[in-house]
């Protein structure tokens, strides 16, 4: 009896200890804001002489705009990210082995050489529920449909192949939506390979979440990182850069891009917002429509998939300019102040200043870097290094999170030191001008390209 009482006593003390140190999301939100504001105030004080000296060349308002765009605001955002990542702790899964039926939608265009491998990874899932697969051949000019049907039969998949003649990924996915009879949908790109527990972890997260959570983004990492130097750099972007942003947004219950490459959705929620919109960033606008309707979107780092990233600067430029255009589309369609949640008001509102920071970086920081090499420190100098520590700290925190994820999935982090160095020091010099290009393309409503 004494042992039983001691057990109960210890259990209650343990529960009390856990409850005592539980930090609500709203508290994390305001603590992160407080930290980032303190960082901003210190940065402004330290930067005062820099701003004053620069103003003698370009006027005070322009000086403030330049320093704010390349140092102060990026520092504020990075410091908010750092503390949020430190405070982030993924909620435990209520059921690690769900068995609810799910339909996987794959929009494919000219994927005859890769579709079988994608389907083979789906067939090897450790998910105990029924998986239905719908391939939507979106106006392919090759044997995508034939090869998909053969692979489905060979792998004993519950697979259906349908045709959609109207080009556009949104058309393909909406055609697939009409053929869904399950409560849950997963979208997978035709060149994306799923880790063997990917479906299980993704469905487990959406089933373990509150009812208002209508979608969960999976963690998409780089498959072809050994192809060339450009893919080696992108490996770190997906592993640290994109993952850190998604983790931050997931913490505040508003992952802003439940990406079509690999994510789960509640079927009714997708239908209620009218399916995937006619947009170059169809997954971005869809996600913001969810948030506007009061639903929440999460991120699950354990639900891992691997995708092929662009191997040439031209294809990378197309992809990232398309992403930038998608963000502008979302801002045009759904204003941040129309979002019902304070979290998503803030998260989507940050995107309003992204074009300003990208333009400031492209027009001022890059030329300033050239001047610095010539010994002229008007724009780029020691003060601009204030942003770097926060960036490195955020990457370190995310690396530790990712190492824990990889350990649980029995995966190994590839050694790619050179790629990491160039990712930290040079990647933004490539990506930011490409984003500016995307803003210009959207401003003039230039032709949309799926890939």
From TrEMBL:
Keywords: Glycosyltransferase, Membrane, Transferase, Transmembrane, Transmembrane helix. It comes from the Bacteria. The chain crosses the membrane at residues 21-42, 62-87, 359-377, 383-400, 420-440. One of its GO terms (molecular function) is glycosyltransferase activity. InterPro entries: Nucleotide-diphossugar_trans (IPR029044). SUPFAM superfamilies: Nucleotide-diphospho-sugar transferases. Belongs to the glycosyltransferase 2 family. It comes from Pseudobacteroides cellulosolvens ATCC 35603 = DSM 2933. This is Glycosyl transferase family 2.
